[in-house]
Q: What sequence folds into this?
C-alpha cells in the first residue's frame, strides 16, 4: 500500500457555547464584572459553558492523487474539517499529518481590496494564497485571460460588476499549483457559463495528478470530479468510500427527509390571477402509481395534472419541457402537434407519461405549458422537479453523471467486425 | 511526494517560538500587505502622501511655539524646531505603528478565517507601512538641517542601531496591542488615549535634560525615551546622553518585544475562532 499523503487520526474540534465562548469576543468590562461578582458571591453556581463538538473522532487517509468529495448537510462539520486541514483553526484533539504543500480555497477573493486595481489585486491575492511573485508573473496573462478582464486591469475592483469580481477571484485561485488542493463550495458563484468553466478548470487540475479535497452541495460536480467521497453527519463520518455509492446513499436519505409536498404541487393562486385557463395542481408518480420524485435510469415517470378555468374556444394541447441543472433544455413533449391529441374543454385532469427516462444522473426541472387554439393560455415555469440516480444502463456499475457525460444515454452496442 | 516535508497539525500547548523558515517563505507577503496599506491609505485623499509631510510639520510648529517660545524650555543648544522634529521622526512612526497594528488583526478578520499564513505578518506589515512615512519625514529633516546649517556629527553612524531599536519597540507594542484587541475590543478605545499619554512621558516636545536626576531611572523604562535620546545624539550631536538610561530603555524594548511575540503566538491559535 502506498503511504497516505494526508492522514487524519481521531480528529475533534470543540466550540464553547453560551457563557464566554458564545459571545463573538470578550470585553474587558465583562471580565471585570464577572470577577467582582464571583468575589462577592462565594458559593457561585459554577456555570460551565455548553460544549459543542463540530467534529468528533474523525479518522481517514487520503492517498496521493486521490480526489475526495466531502458531502453532508449544513452544519455537518465540512467547513470545520477544511479549516483544520488548512491550519486556519486548531483541532481540540487528535492530529493530522500532511506530506506536501497545501493550498486551500475556502472563499474566492480572499484579501481583495476594493480600492486596488485588478492587477494589484491579482498580486495581492496570489501572495495571500501562497504564490511567489515570480509564479504570479509567469501566470499573469493566463489569469487575466481566464477571467476575461483584459480591459479593466487598471480599474479598482470596486467598480467591477459582481460577475467580473468573482471571475477574477476564481481565476487567481485556479492557477495555484499545490500538491494538495482544498476547495470549499466555490463553484456556487457566477453565472452558469462561468460555473461550467470553473468546473472544467477544476477537473483539469484534478487530472494533473494532484490530490483534491472538494466540498460541495452539487452532487453532479462531486460525481464528475471525485473518485471517492466522505459523508459527514453531525461531525462524524457516516460513510466513506466510492463516490457513486456514498452520494447515492446520501441523496436517498436526503430525499426521504422531504415531505410529501414535493410530489404534489399546488399552484400559487397569486400567479394565476389573470389567467382564464391554467394548471392548478400537479403530482408525480412512478409506474406503480406511487408518489415519487427520484427515478432510476430507464424508469417511467407519470404526471397527473389538473386544470382550472374555462377554455374559450374548443380544445387544448398540453406540453412539457424538461431542463437539466445547467438550464439546458433536455426534451419537449406536446400532445397536439406530436400526437394529434387535443383535449376537449370538458377535460379537467390529464395524465402525461414520460419514459423510459434515458437521462444521466442529476436533477431535472419540468415546465408545463398549455395551448388553447393558437393562444398560449398558461406556462408554469417551475412546476415540479425530479432526480435521476443510478444511471448505470449497461449494468457495469459505472455511473454516468450529467455533468461529465452528456444529458442522455442512447441505446448502443459495441462489437467486432469479423471478416469472412 | 516529499516525505521530509511533513506537517503535523495538532493542538499546541505552552509557549511557541517563531518559525523563521516559514516567515522567510512568506517574505513577499510582508511587502504586499504593507504596500496595500500605503496604496489604500492615500488613494482617495486629495493631497495624498502630502499628509505624511504636513502632520509632523504642524506638530513641530505647535511644540516650538508652546514649549520653546512660551514655556521657554531648554533646547540643548539647537533650534527648538529641529530638536523636536528629530524626536517626532521616531515618535510618529511609533504612534502610527501603535494605532495601525492594534487594529490590524481585527481588520483582517476575513482573511484570517479563510487562509493560512503566519499571523505575525499582519501586525508586522502594519508597522512596516509606517516606514514610508518615516522616510518622507527624514527627507524633510535633511532639508531643515540644510536650512539651519546644522552638520551631523560622526555619531550618525550609530543611527541604524537606534532605527532598529525604534522598529523593535514599535513592533513589540504592536504585537501586544493587536493580539489584545482580537480578544478585548476595549483596546480600540484605549489606544488613542495611550498614544497621547505616551507622548507626554516621552521626550518628544521637550528635551530629556529637564527630567530631574532622581526620576531619570524610572523615566528610562519608557522604551521610546532611549530611542529619542539616541536619535538626538546621533543626528544633532547634543551632549552625550545618559548611557545607562539608554541601556535601560533598550532592555525594556527587548522585554516588551519578546513578551509580545510569545503572547501573540499564544493567542494566534484562537484568532480564527474569536474574531
A:
Amino acid at each position: 500500500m502506498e503511504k497516505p499523503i494526508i492522514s487524519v487520526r481521531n480528529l475533534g474540534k470543540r466550540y464553547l457555547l453560551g457563557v464566554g465562548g458564545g459571545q463573538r469576543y470578550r470585553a474587558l468590562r465583562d471580565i471585570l464584572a464577572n470577577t467582582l461578582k464571583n468575589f462577592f458571591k462565594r458559593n457561585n453556581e459554577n456555570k460551565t459553558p455548553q460544549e459543542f463538538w463540530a467534529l468528533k473522532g474523525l479518522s481517514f487517509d487520503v492517498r496521493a492523487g486521490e480526489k475526495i468529495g466531502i458531502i453532508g448537510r449544513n452544519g455537518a462539520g465540512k467547513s470545520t474539517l477544511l479549516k483544520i486541514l488548512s491550519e486556519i483553526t486548531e483541532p481540540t484533539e487528535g492530529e493530522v499529518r500532511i506530506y506536501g504543500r497545501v493550498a486551500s480555497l475556502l472563499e474566492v477573493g480572499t484579501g481583495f481590496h476594493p480600492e486596488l486595481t485588478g492587477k494589484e489585486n491579482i498580486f495581492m491575492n496570489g501572495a495571500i494564497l501562497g504564490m511567489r511573485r515570480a509564479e504570479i508573473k509567469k501566470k499573469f496573462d493566463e489569469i487575466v485571460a481566464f477571467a476575461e478582464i483584459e480591459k479593466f486591469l487598471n480599474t479598482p475592483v470596486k467598480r467591477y460588476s459582481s460577475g467580473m469580481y468573482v471571475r477574477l477571484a476564481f481565476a487567481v485561485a485556479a492557477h495555484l499549483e499545490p500538491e494538495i488542493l482544498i476547495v470549499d463550495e466555490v463553484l456556487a458563484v457566477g453565472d452558469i457559463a462561468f460555473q461550467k468553466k470553473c468546473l472544467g478548470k477544476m477537473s483539469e487540475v484534478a487530472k494533473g495528478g494532484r490530490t483534491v479535497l472538494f466540498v460541495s452541495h452539487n452532487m453532479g460536480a462531486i460525481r464528475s470530479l471525485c473518485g471517492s467521497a466522505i459523508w459527514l453527519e453531525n461531525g462524524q463520518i457516516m460513510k466513506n468510500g466510492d463516490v457513486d455509492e456514498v452520494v447515492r446513499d446520501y441523496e436517498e436519505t436526503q430525499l426521504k427527509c422531504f415531505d410529501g409536498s414535493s410530489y404534489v404541487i399546488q399552484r400559487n393562486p397569486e400567479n394565476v390571477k389573470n389567467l382564464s385557463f391554467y394548471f392548478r395542481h400537479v403530482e408525480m408518480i412512478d409506474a406503480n402509481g406511487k408518489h415519487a420524485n427520484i427515478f432510476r435510469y430507464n424508469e417511467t415517470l407519470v404526471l397527473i395534472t389538473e386544470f382550472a378555468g374555462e377554455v374559450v374556444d374548443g380544445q387544448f394541447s398540453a406540453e412539457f419541457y424538461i431542463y437539466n441543472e445547467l438550464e439546458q433544455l433536455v426534451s419537449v413533449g406536446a400532445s397536439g402537434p406530436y400526437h394529434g391529441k387535443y383535449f376537449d374543454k370538458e377535460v379537467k385532469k390529464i395524465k402525461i407519461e414520460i419514459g423510459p427516462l434515458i437521462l444521466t444522473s442529476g436533477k431535472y426541472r419540468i415546465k408545463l405549458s398549455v395551448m388553447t387554439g393558437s393562444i398560449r393560455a398558461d406556462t408554469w415555469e417551475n412546476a415540479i422537479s425530479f432526480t435521476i440516480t443510478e444511471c448505470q444502463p449497461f449494468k457495469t456499475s459505472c455511473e454516468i453523471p450529467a455533468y461529465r457525460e452528456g444529458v442522455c444515454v442512447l441505446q448502443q452496442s459495441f462489437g467486432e467486425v469479423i471478416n469472412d | 511526494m516529499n516525505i521530509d516535508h511533513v506537517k503535523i497539525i495538532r493542538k499546541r500547548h505552552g509557549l511557541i517560538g517563531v518559525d523563521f523558515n516559514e516567515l522567510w517563505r512568506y517574505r513577499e507577503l510582508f511587502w504586499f500587505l504593507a504596500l496595500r496599506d500605503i496604496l489604500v491609505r492615500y488613494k482617495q485623499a486629495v493631497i495624498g502622501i502630502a499628509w505624511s509631510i504636513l502632520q509632523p510639520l504642524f506638530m513641530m510648529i505647535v511644540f516650538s511655539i508652546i514649549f520653546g517660545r512660551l514655556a521657554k524650555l531648554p533646547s540643548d543648544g539647537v533650534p527648538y524646531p529641529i530638536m523636536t522634529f528629530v524626536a517626532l521622526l521616531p515618535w510618529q512612526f511609533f504612534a502610527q505603528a501603535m494605532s495601525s497594528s492594534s487594529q490590524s488583526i481585527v481588520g483582517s478578520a476575513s482573511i484570517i478565517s479563510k487562509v493560512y499564513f503566519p499571523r505575525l505578518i499582519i501586525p508586522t506589515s502594519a508597522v512596516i507601512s509606517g516606514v514610508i512615512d518615516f522616510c518622507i519625514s527624514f527627507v524633510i529633516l535633511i532639508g531643515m538641517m540644510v536650512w539651519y546649517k546644522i552638520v551631523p556629527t560622526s555619531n550618525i553612524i550609530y543611527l541604524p542601531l537606534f532605527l532598529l531599536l525604534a522598529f523593535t519597540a514599535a513592533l513589540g507594542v504592536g504585537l501586544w496591542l493587536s493580539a489584545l484587541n482580537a480578544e478585548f475590543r476595549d483596546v480600540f478605545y484605549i489606544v488613542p488615549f495611550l498614544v497621547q499619554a505616551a507622548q507626554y512621558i516621552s521626550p518628544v516636545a521637550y528635551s530629556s535634560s529637564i527630567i530631574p536626576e532622581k526620576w531619570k531611572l524610572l523615566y528610562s523604562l519608557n522604551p521610546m525615551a532611549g530611542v529619542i535620546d539616541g536619535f538626538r545624539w546621533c543626528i544633532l550631536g547634543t551632549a552625550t546622553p545618559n548611557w545607562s538610561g539608554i541601556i535601560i530603555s533598550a532592555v525594556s524594548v527587548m522585554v516588551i518585544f519578546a513578551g509580545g511575540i510569545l503572547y501573540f503566538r499564544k493567542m494566534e491559535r484562537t484568532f480564527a475562532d474569536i474574531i
Q: What stands out?
A: The two ends of chain B are 36 Å apart (CA to CA). Chain B is about 70% helix and 0% strand. The interface with chain A takes residues 1-3, 5-12, 26, 28-29, 32, 36, 39-40, 43-44, 110-117, 182-186, 269-270, 272-275 of chain B (CB under 8 Å).
